[in-house]
Design brief:
alpha+beta, three-stranded antiparallel beta sheet, 3 helices, 9 strands, elongated
Length: 147
């Protein structure tokens, strides 16, 4: 079955691509989740309008992400943790803890956008990477201190 992608889909392609998939995959997965249309002339025209709206929305999201990145670079957060002997942390600092600390400063960041290269298991100052958009990353200075 030929379908036209309505959204960027990692396994198949970009928005507007005409792809050939198995009938069951299209009927049971792509069409109900509105990831694709059946390839008809009417749907091709409808998709052109969707592409224009998608491009406008994408530009606005990119501008918002750049603005947020500029603001977040100036922010530093403090995460108090319980420590044992020799200043060893019980457990580690999670992305949820970082997201909660940012939320206290009125920045609503999803924990899945926070990227930790390795778990934070010691006191100190860390630079935490946050992926706000496909093209926009920023760094937030994070202080891990004794509770």
């Amino acid at each position: 079955m030929k379908v036209i992608l309505r959204k960027d889909f990692e396994q198949l392609g970009k928005i507007g691509d005409l792809v050939e998939v198995k009938n069951g995959y299209a009927r049971n997965f792509l069409l109900p989740r509105q990831i694709a249309y059946v390839a008809t002339k009417g749907n091709i025209k409808a998709l052109e309008e969707e592409k224009k709206q998608y491009a406008k929305r994408e530009i606005k999201q990119l501008e918002d992400a750049k603005t947020m990145a500029a603001e977040l670079e100036k922010v530093s957060i403090t995460i108090p943790v319980k420590v044992g002997e020799e200043d060893k942390i019980f457990g580690s600092v999670t992305t949820q803890m970082i997201a909660d600390a940012l939320k206290e400063k009125n920045y609503n960041i999803d924990k899945r956008k926070i990227i930790l290269d390795e778990p934070i298991k010691a006191l100190g100052i860390y630079e935490v990477n946050i992926k706000l958009h496909n093209d926009v990353n920023t760094i937030v200075k994070t202080w891990v201190v004794r509770e």
